[in-house]
Amino acid sequence: MAASTKAEADALFRKAKYGEAATKYGLAIKQDPENEKLYGNRAACCEKLAASLWGPEKVGWLQCGVTDGRKATTLAPAWGKGHARLASACLSLAAHVVDCAWERDDYDEVGAARSMTQKTPGETCFSKSARDEAAAYKLESEVACRRALALDGSLSTCRANLAKLADDPSHRPAPPEAFGDLPYATDAALRDETAAQAHKAEGDAAYGAKKYDEAERHYTLALAEDAADAKLHANRSACRAQLHSYRGALRDAETAARLDPAWAKARCRVGQALWGLGDYAAAEAAADAGLALDGELPALRSLKKKCARETSEDPAVQAELHRLRVDNRARGGAEAVARALNEAPGAGPQMVDIEKLLKNVRPDLADAFPGGLPGMGGMPGGMPPGMGLDNIKTAAEMQSEPQVPDAELRKLARANVRARMGDAAPPLPPGEVREVGADGAFEA
Hints:
Blueprint: H1 2-14, H2 18-31, H3 36-50, H4 56-75, H5 80-99, H6 109-115, H7 128-151, H8 156-166, H9 187-190, H10 193-208, H11 212-225, H12 230-242, H13 246-259, H14 264-276, H15 280-293, H16 298-311, H17 315-330, H18 334-342, H19 354-361, H20 363-368, H21 395-399, H22 406-421, E1 435-436, E2 442-443
Antiparallel strand pairs: 1-2
Helix pairs in contact: 1-2, 2-3, 3-4, 3-5, 4-5, 5-7, 7-8, 8-11, 10-11, 11-12, 12-13, 12-14, 13-14, 14-15, 14-16, 15-16, 17-22
């Protein structure tokens, strides 16, 4: 009887009727409570259902998926797909816990606001209880992934999930004792250089065509096959820098430098990411470290020259110039954000997956505001002044605001700092003079 009920549930799953399928799997479980595949399949339904939900209902389905995944692995420790289902459920629940950290009593609003002004904030989740809960789920996900791949190396979802965890700065790799007596796959055992190079070739072609989002996707697939390849990390760093996703670019660049300490180009990638984050002094130090390895690399020499120009400015001007550059990158892009918000079902910001929107449409803002743009319609965290829905510009307004040349931004940065500081304003760098305006007054 359980077999026929399972067949009905399988057919419903294939038709994407996940709710009905979950109900049928539940009935089959009552008929055969020791069948691990029924729990594993219902866990898959739970994850599919949760993907389109929010709030308590989403949490309920995600927790059901984790519970079913645990049951499947308990009943059949040698079934790789059961571990894979548990890994995906845990990772999804961890992501939701972080997304909803703002709802918790220990949410640190001051820390969240302060992080928006930091070039490389050390934290992106501002609730300790949420951090701890998410960390536990991420650890369980990694353990399940590695157990699954030790049993079945063809489970691509587990490779992809391990790649996500490796790219998560808040995740700490699982120690050997976390695996107990069960076998698990190490990074060295998982290396598949042939598969990685195939994805890399596609990434290289996309990058050459300036399709940076597509290239990043291919390099990510390559890293799922070979996480120890410094060049793959460096190439993805370059993609992310082109997409203005500088924090991700810095993570990849630092990993590349750690994997191959003698490779000067990795130091160049570190410097380029730091430059994009506005940490010009650290970018110059990275350029110097790279030049010590290869003094003739053109990209490093160019980066050093560019950084030296920035570090010759007073730190207050550097900070203001970076702020203006971030604002300048946003020009011409807000129309896409406004359109996506206005066309969302229900015409309300609560209906929009803000984090996904930012990653796909405005990766520069996804970088500036980890976890999305909160504060809209009761969403978490609070927006900076001027970022509310009422302040999103129309297409016509954006067309009237083209990007400003960098030289003009530098002048404006100096003028803004002088206006704020008055007589205490820093002097211009050596060899530079203020221009004379039409009214005879000196300009920045």
